[in-house]
UniProtKB/TrEMBL annotation:
Protein name: Crinkler effector protein N-terminal domain-containing protein
CC terms in the record's Gene Ontology section: extracellular region; host cell
Crinkler effector protein N-terminal domain span: 7-114
Entry's localization field: Host cell; Secreted
Principal location: host cell
InterPro entries: Crinkler_N
Annotated organism of origin: Rhizophagus irregularis
Length: 124
């Protein structure tokens, strides 16, 4: 269920360069965003729980011509919050990352989605 003002976000699935759009409410938690992402990526994302998704907010959203700049990054690049990404935490609300008066730039990728395996490493 969408909670609060809606927001449209573009996401990139790391490793396969799939780009897709999600609409969610600013008062929804990141854990709810993960459920929406999992549903949007059926049947590809059918075989794991939503908590296996790791979401990384790009501080500087990119266009689809810049995907190659981030496709070669590995999970180790995100152990700490570098200048280019924030780890999105499950209990935080969307509004934590995009306030009510801040609209994400249109037609740019805002979030990188990584699928973690059972031991927590990014799948290759």
């Amino acid at each position: 269920t969408i909670s609060g003002t809606t927001i449209n976000l573009w996401l990139l699935v790391h490793g396969i360069a799939t780009i897709f759009e999600i609409t969610i409410g600013r008062n929804n938690c990141i854990s709810e965003l993960k459920k929406v992402i999992k549903k949007a990526r059926e049947p590809e994302f059918n075989n794991f729980a939503p908590d296996r998704l790791k979401l990384l907010k790009l501080k500087n959203p990119i266009n689809d011509n810049q995907i190659s700049n981030i496709q070669n990054l590995t999970l180790q690049d995100y152990k700490n919050e570098y200048d280019n990404v924030y780890l999105m935490k499950d209990m935080q609300k969307i509004v934590t990352y995009w306030s009510e008066n801040q609209a994400p730039p249109e037609n740019l990728i805002h979030i990188i989605v990584e699928v973690l395996d059972i031991i927590g490493d990014a799948s290759k």
